[in-house]
Design a protein that fits this description.
Length: 459
């Protein structure tokens, strides 16, 4: 199967030019002006933007949490991602304390294998680092192609590890060419504030936010940055939300330290005032939404190169599931749906409003995730030899987000009624047309597990 995309305005992290792209099989074969080649299918991209398939390195599909499961399966979640221009996701495996990393991998593969529509990989969340777990790190990196390991500094008694385990894990991961992802919030302080608010009868969603003030994230981020500096292990802070946490990273640059930072689309565009609404549970996530000043800091951080990735932390729960916490904010399942909306929201709120350039858009949504997590240049760019993961995008088309029309398996939208500028029109995944005219043309099982290479400190 061959495809010729004609006259598209090709955007990468560094380039902006009009040309044709010839695709044969799964990869890009030729890029050039007025290509004189025969193809099985021709797509006219005149007047459209053409950029690499998006990579969302932070999603939770079919994830067990608080006695339920996130509502998007690997099939519905990766299909919704494709509709929004994201061709690859990286999900999180959660180790059960007392069990091995391989046990967790087997459990997650049981849900993901042969069910994904789009491409995928995994991070391994280590919740019980011990001598046995230590032996598995090398195997995961070298045999499984899973090179990133997540740690939690919160969720005490379930996911949280202490600083002693963190240091040990960092040293082992560094030795074998991996990277540590961290959920950086102070679990002890948060637990104290949750208990305090509940004892005072303060049970609404607002107190989820007030139990996780900015200092809980700033302190943990600084501690993680310091431990990474000491061990020399590559570090990546997931879903960073606030000025205090980003300042911890900013300060580390003064000692020539490199720290990778991800924020999520929600932290750039919505704020904590939503927790005062009657339906505030829709936006209960950890860390919580922050203030307007934090949004300004994060946009600036993207342009300053301090924030390298915009992800989603997509972890959807239906409204019925959210109502598990209607009388107690601490029982509301944490997470919100955004896997389908990330690319269009970031374009509309970022590029169309002149907050970021087109090149920066591709950099943080596509290229940097591929570079940081060991997939570049196979993924994350438009180049000869790269996978033909391509989005054809109308920069001018206006449309409205609604739960009535989205493809995520959740019965509300966190962005209901938002009017956007910029629409995904056609999506290719490894040389196959995946989305066209708002229809998915691929079946579940087409998505491929992507083994990743060892990581580098440089991008």
């Amino acid at each position: 199967m061959s495809i010729l995309i004609k006259n598209g305005n090709i955007i990468t992290a560094t380039d902006n030019y009009v040309a044709d792209i010839f695709i044969e099989g799964e990869t890009i074969k030729t890029i050039g002006k007025n290509l004189n080649v025969k193809a099985d299918q021709e797509i006219d991209a005149t007047g459209k933007l053409v950029f690499p398939g998006g990579i969302d390195p932070h999603v939770h599909l079919d994830m067990p949490f608080m006695g339920t499961f996130s509502s998007d399966s690997y099939e519905t979640g990766t299909r919704a991602a494709l509709h929004g221009g994201t061709t690859m996701v990286i999900d999180f495996i959660l180790q059960t304390q007392g069990k091995s990393l391989h046990d967790a991998l087997k459990e997650w593969k049981g849900r993901s294998d042969n069910n994904c529509v789009g491409d995928y990989s995994f991070h391994m969340a280590v919740t019980d680092f011990n001598d046995d777990t230590k032996k598995e790190i090398k195997e995961f990196i070298e045999d499984e192609g899973i090179v990133s390991f997540k740690t939690f500094m919160a969720y005490k008694g379930a996911l949280m590890i202490d600083d002693r385990q963190m240091i040990g894990l960092m040293e082992e991961v560094k030795k074998h060419g991996g990277l540590i992802n961290v959920h950086a919030t102070n679990g002890d302080m948060i637990d104290y504030l949750v208990a305090k608010h509940k004892a005072e009868g303060k049970l609404s969603p607002l107190y989820h936010y007030l139990s996780q003030p900015e200092i809980t994230e700033a302190e943990a981020s600084e501690r993680f940055v310091d431990m990474a500096s000491y061990t020399g292990c590559p570090g990546y802070i997931v879903h960073l939300t606030c000025e205090g946490a980003l300042n911890a990273v900013r300060n580390a640059t003064r000692r020539n330290q490199k720290m990778f930072v991800e924020t999520c689309i929600q932290y750039l565009i919505i704020d904590a005032s939503l927790y005062e609404r009657e339906d505030g549970a829709k936006w209960v996530m950890s860390p919580p939404l922050r203030e307007k000043k934090d949004q300004a800091t994060l946009w600036a951080g993207i342009n300053q190169g301090l924030v390298q990735v915009v992800a989603t932390d997509h972890c959807p729960f239906k409204w019925e599931q959210k109502l598990m916490g209607k009388d107690d904010f601490s029982k509301i399942p944490n997470g919100h749906p955004a896997i389908e909306n990330r690319m269009e929201l970031l374009f509309s709120e970022g590029v169309a409003k002149n907050k970021i350039t087109l090149n920066k858009y591709v950099e943080v949504a596509c290229t940097n995730p591929a570079k940081i997590f060991g997939m570049f240049p196979r993924k994350g760019t438009i180049a000869v030899g790269s996978d033909a993961d391509i989005v054809i995008f109308d920069a001018n088309e206006k449309h409205t987000i609604s739960a009535k029309s989205h493809h995520m398996n959740v019965d509300y939208s966190a962005y209901e009624g938002w009017e956007l500028t910029g629409k995904v029109k056609t999506v290719l995944l490894r040389g196959e047309v995946a989305i066209d005219e708002n229809k998915c043309l691929l079946q579940k099982g087409f998505g491929k597990f992507i083994k990743r290479k060892k990581v580098s400190q440089t991008i």
